[in-house]
Amino acid sequence: MIEYEIIDHTADVGIIARGDSVRDVFINAAHGMFSLIADLDMVVEVDSQEITVEAPDQEELLVTWLNELLYLFDAENLIFSRFEIIHLGKEQLNAIVYGEQVDPARHNLKTQVKAATYHMLKLREEDGFRAHIILDV
User: Fold this and answer.
1) pLDDT tens-digit profile of 105-123?
2) Alpha-carbon gap, residue 41 to 43, rounded angstroms
3) Which of 70, 89, 111, 124 is deepest in the core (most CB within 10 A)?
């Protein structure tokens, strides 16, 4: 189940991602971020990319995860629509993400997301799990 909410924030945009587990929150945050970038119904899963990121704690790991995905979008022109987390620990995440090269003829690019930030970052257990992330646009 994909569960996230897009919220306005002064000159930026935020995501509140929810899930039954922290893993679900990480997946939903990534999906929410890419839904801001483009219509994900138009993304075909023809490419996959393995990702490993590390950070001192899970909140920072969430920001690092999202920024790594943005790096692949910006540097390698890849857009993703499915996120499979293989391992999620307190300080490390291993995942496989699925998508394709951006095709301007098919992918209606909407919002340029520059980075996930630490501003107002929260990851906590609340009716399941919930994260609040501000994205620099």
Assistant:
1) 899 899 999 999 999 899 9
2) 6
3) 70
